[in-house]
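// run 5 | inverse folding | seed 20
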């Protein structure tokens, strides 16, 4: 609830009392966290061998080959489970350090930091000297980020259920399926800090994303000046195309509020407190107008006192507009117009974004998404993940392998999935992702408990 509705706090207290009396509880709706885009490093040429190891290199995995059910084989072995990997060997072949300094971020803050460091340098040198004289050993910890490139060699002789061989292309297909924007399983790869991953996952080129964000940050059309803000390298037509998605995004922004209110406040006590003692939530839920009116009032966009007239079935908004819910139809766009009017187009955390429903996108993010959805982008590959071939020492046999670059701040075991036959995926649209991985130890302990229980019953 926003600050505009603070005057109704005593009503919420009454609601809490009512809830305690009737013994109701609200169900929490899970919301997805926003995906935070991390800066991508440029693709480095694979250097094989002689790597410069990162602080925590992943050990080589070398498993015996054999016949396994593909649906029970993740890319890497999972410690403590009965699963074996379909990768034969994983080797770290190069590691590139990422510089901590961001040239674009340097400014007054960086200047002040340097001045402070100069002032403290004498003191630090003195302390270091004293420490060395006392014979204390100081160990420097490398906390820098690295982009590590691994060569993942695949087992030979792997076959799918229909007898067709497993190839590196099949593995790449699975990687992209688990990195796709619409994948919602627990083996999602889309959020991992992998060069080129954010572009593939969002299907928006990084340069295009920066351009759109620059346009939105500069602000929209100035009615008094009758022009858009001047942005170097960007013309008014480009700005108009982006800002043309403003109201479309606003309707989604408002719908998120309506959905949130009708999910988290779906109780008679709240309806009685905010609208009328004669209403039940069942009546509200059955009428789209009432669902919207309910959201208006809970979110502070109804008139401060008695915003809903039960007898007349009317809603009076904070701006003074009166909606006759018998004749008028109100929805997300009408609520969005009310929000715009209230904040006068202020796009900030203290403005429109202050009213975003918890766990949902800001108006800027929604506007960018609306613009991207109208463009014809195509990013078919993840730039730092590709296939190759390798030859085992002492043999002439070639094996297929996958080259993968990933940040040292990520756990390599997070880059995992269960292999699915692309032909089967085309037929069913489903991946072989088990919902729960049962640890062997837990499985054995459960059996033991069961046997003990049976013996105890017989005795």
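// decoded
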């Amino acid at each position: 609830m926003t600050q505009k509705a603070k005057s109704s706090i005593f009503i919420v207290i009454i609601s809490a009392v009512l809830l305690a009396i009737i013994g109701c509880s609200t169900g929490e709706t899970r919301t997805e966290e926003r995906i935070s885009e991390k800066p991508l490093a440029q693709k480095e040429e694979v250097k094989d061998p002689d790597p410069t190891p990162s602080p925590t290199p992943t050990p080589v995995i070398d498993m015996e080959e054999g016949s396994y059910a593909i649906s029970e084989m993740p890319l890497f072995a999972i410690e403590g489970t009965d699963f074996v990997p379909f990768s034969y060997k994983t080797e770290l072949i190069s590691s590139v350090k990422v510089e901590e300094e961001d040239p674009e971020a340097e400014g007054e803050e960086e200047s002040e930091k340097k001045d402070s460091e100069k002032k403290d340098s004498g003191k630090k040198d003195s302390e270091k000297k004293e420490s060395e004289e006392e014979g204390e050993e100081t160990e420097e910890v490398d906390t820098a980020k690295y982009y590590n490139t691994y060569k993942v060699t695949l087992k030979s002789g792997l076959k799918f259920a229909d007898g067709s061989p497993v190839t590196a292309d099949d593995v790449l297909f699975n990687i992209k399926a688990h990195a796709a924007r619409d994948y919602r399983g627990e083996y999602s790869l889309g959020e991992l800090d992998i060069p080129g991953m954010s572009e593939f996952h969002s299907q928006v080129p990084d340069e295009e994303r920066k351009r759109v964000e620059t346009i939105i940050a500069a602000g929209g059309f100035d009615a008094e000046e009758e022009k858009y803000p001047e942005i170097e390298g960007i013309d008014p037509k480009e700005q108009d195309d982006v800002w043309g998605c403003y109201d479309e995004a606003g309707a989604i922004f408002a719908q998120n509020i309506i959905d949130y209110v009708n999910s988290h406040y779906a109780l008679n006590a709240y309806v009685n407190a905010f609208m009328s003692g004669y209403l039940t939530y069942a009546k509200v839920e059955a009428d789209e107008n009432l669902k919207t009116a309910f959201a208006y009032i809970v979110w502070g966009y109804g008139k401060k006192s008695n915003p809903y007239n039960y007898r007349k079935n009317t809603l009076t908004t904070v701006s003074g507009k009166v909606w006759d819910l018998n004749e008028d139809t109100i929805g997300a766009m009408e609520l969005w117009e009310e929000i715009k009017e209230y904040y006068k187009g202020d796009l900030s955390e203290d403005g429109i974004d202050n009213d975003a429903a918890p766990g949902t996108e800001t108006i800027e993010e929604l506007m960018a998404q609306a613009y991207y959805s109208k463009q014809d982008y195509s990013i078919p590959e993840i730039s730092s993940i590709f296939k190759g071939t390798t030859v085992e020492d002492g043999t002439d046999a070639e094996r297929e392998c996958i080259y993968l670059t990933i940040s040292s701040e990520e756990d390599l075991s997070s880059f995992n999935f269960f292999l699915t036959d692309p032909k089967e995926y085309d037929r069913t649209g489903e991946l072989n992702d088990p919902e729960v991985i049962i640890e062997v130890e837990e499985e054995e302990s459960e059996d033991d408990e069961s046997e003990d229980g049976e013996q105890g019953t017989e005795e």
